DNA sequence: AAGTATATAAGAATTATTCCAATTTCATTC
DNA sequence: GAATGAAATTGGAATAATTCTTATATACTT
């Protein structure tokens, strides 16, 4: 049983506006992984004068309340990797520190059959996300 | 046995300039995952008048020759995920399509001890990268 | 229904990155 | 070793994604 939009907005403690409602509907219907621009193009069908800002603000709002999330952390700036051997990353979600590691155990497990049907898998990347020791020390959490 | 800078640039078929040489040294020395700005700040110690453009151009050059790589594909625009359950992604490196999947087999394997020492791991994300069926059809490769 | 805090629209501002044109420099030839 | 021409650098303008600002409009409480 899914919450009604009214309850969702009530729980967030914000007003339910037509724009927000429509963005919510678009997102609920969407099985892809839209960029802000995709949402903007879609909602303009009904709200031709909506501003980009409203879309961005609403996406941030939804994200801060755990309704959606960004596909990647670290998206603000491009980061470069100087290690060209196959490896994975530990990423600190606070300070964005990245540490390389290898993990043969996980490289060997065959990919799920369904995924193989979606296309040709060429690479496997694992990201372990958490809080690094430095950041743990800083806040004690 | 590592190639000399001279050989590296020769292999790339480009001129060896002091700026490029210094950026190469900075990257070789660097165990972090620098953003362009980090490289810029570092090289300005020796080349105070270097332009951002040179840094970006050189990083692209190195990337196109396989000396370094970007930490993430998909970094151009923020993409949103409307599926808040734990899952992983198949990503088409051509069209950037993203498909969700779950993979219990891989979720259960304990993380390497060394990683646990680096911090508190809170989430595990796997990205299978390849070419989706649509893109395979288009080019026949 | 009125009042008020909150949300929106439009465009300016910001940030990361790329483009452009003028100048400089590398590396090859003489 | 100097001249030369192609390639590289600089500095600033341009672009693209995202955020901020301010005046106006609107949802929700009373």
How would you characterize the overall build of this protein?
The structure is a homodimer of 141-residue chains. Chain A is of the alpha+beta class and 141 residues long. Chain A has two domains: 5-64, Arc Repressor Mutant, subunit A (Orthogonal Bundle), CATH 1.10.10.10; 88-139, 2-Layer Sandwich (Dna Ligase, domain 1), CATH 3.30.1490. Chain A contains seven helices and five strands. Chain A has helices at residues 5-12, 18-29, 36-43, 52-64, 104-108, 113-118, 133-139; strands at 69-70, 80-81, 88-92, 98-101, 119-132. In chain A, strands 4-3-5 form a three-stranded mixed sheet. In chain A, a hairpin with a 5-residue loop joins strand 3 and strand 4 (98-101). In chain A, helix 3 crosses helix 4. Chain A is extended. The model of chain A has no long low-confidence stretch (mean pLDDT 92). Chains A and B meet through helix 3, strand 1, strand 2, strand 3 and strand 4 of A and helix 3, strand 1, strand 2, strand 3 and strand 4 of B.
């Amino acid at each position: 049983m899914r919450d009604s939009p009214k309850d969702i907005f009530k729980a967030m403690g914000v007003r339910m506006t037509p724009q927000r409602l429509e963005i919510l509907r678009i997102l609920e219907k969407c099985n892809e992984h839209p960029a802000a621009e995709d949402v903007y193009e879609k909602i303009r069908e009904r709200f031709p004068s909506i501003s980009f800002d409203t879309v961005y603000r609403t996406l941030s709002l939804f994200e801060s309340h755990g309704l959606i999330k960004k596909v990647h952390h670290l998206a603000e700036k491009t980061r470069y990797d100087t290690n060209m051997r196959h490896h994975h990353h530990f990423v600190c979600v606070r300070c964005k520190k990245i540490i390389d590691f290898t993990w043969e155990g996980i490289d060997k497990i065959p990919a799920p059959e369904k995924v193989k049907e979606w296309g040709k898998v060429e690479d496997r990347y694992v990201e372990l996300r958490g809080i690094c020791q430095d950041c743990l020390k800083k806040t004690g959490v």
